[in-house]
Amino acid sequence: MYVSADAKYLFSGDIIEVEGGRNLTEEVKNKARIAAIDAVGEDQMIIFSPPKDQIKHTINVFTDIDCGFCRRLHSEMDQYNARGIKVRYLFFPRAGVKSHSYEKAVSVWCADDRKAAMTLAKNGAEPEAKTCENPVKAQFELGSRLGVTGTPAMVLENGQLLPGYVPADRMSAYLDQLQAQQQAQQLAQKLSIQAKK
To answer: Which of 6, 14, 15, 164 lies in the 20 to 30 Å Cα band around 52?
Structure first.
């Protein structure tokens, strides 16, 4: 929402830059979204990553242990990592904090080996019931605030929210395309600034 300086006018909606076709409102939302996720900290996420020197992209995935498409995405984890995509999982038990999916998420987080427990749970195994201090409720609430309504919900490096499952090869191509567009925009802005000097 936008408010005039004198507080007489309130506008609800997106601001579009006509010449470039850019949605300036969405860009602001994207920045806020990625900042909120980064503030969580990787120590509060379950991460599946290629070797550090092979990381090309990082995506954040709000996931539900019992979601069929989340399981399908997880079954391609080796393919995501092979394409240089680091996956940072955050929990989003769609049925809420008093659900069995929530309890499973807590059990996965509290497991001795979180990644192994996540993979077993995504393969349909019931995780060993455990409780401990965990970020599951906070991540569920964060997802709700960021506009997550279903799973998997992916937040890309630029903060864009992508609902649903995307195969690893398509995700890799899309991320490469976004990166190329961003680099082209940065170059154009730099040249524009230099031309004005």
So the answer is: 164
Residue 51 pLDDT > 70: yes
Considering its fold, how many domains does the chain have in total?
1
pTM for the complete prediction?
0.85
The catalytic position among 33, 64, 66, 83 is 64
1: in domain: no
C-alpha to C-alpha distance for 63 and 61, rounded to whole angstroms: 6
Q: Is 14 assigned a catalytic role?
A: no
Give a yes or no: residue 194 inside a domain: no
Task: Give the residue ranges of DSSP H helices in 9-123.
Answer: 24-40, 68-75, 77-82, 100-110, 114-122
Q: Is 67 a catalytic residue?
A: yes
110 is catalytic: no
Q: Is the pLDDT of residue 23 over 70?
A: no
Instruction: Kindly state whether residue 75 falls inside one of the protein's structural domains.
Output: yes
Question: What domain range includes position 47?
Answer: 36-187
